[in-house]
Amino acid sequence: MLVGASACGGGGSDKARGDDPKASGKPSVGASASPTKPAGPPMLLETITPQTGTTVGVAMPISVVFTDPVAAKARATVEKHMKVSASQPVVGAWHWFGDKRADWRPEEYWPSGTKVKIDVDMRGVNNGNGRYGVRRYAHDFKIGDDVRADVSVTGHTMKVTRNGKAVRTLSINAGSAEYPTWNGTMAVIDKQEKVHMTSCSVGISCDKGSPNYYDLTLPWDVHLTQSGTYVHYSTGDPTPGSGSARGSHGCVHLSMSDAKWFYGQVKQGDPVTVTGSPRAKAAADNGYADFNLGWGQWLAGSASGKGTTGPL
Question: Coil, strand or helix: which one is 259?
Answer without folding.
Answer: helix
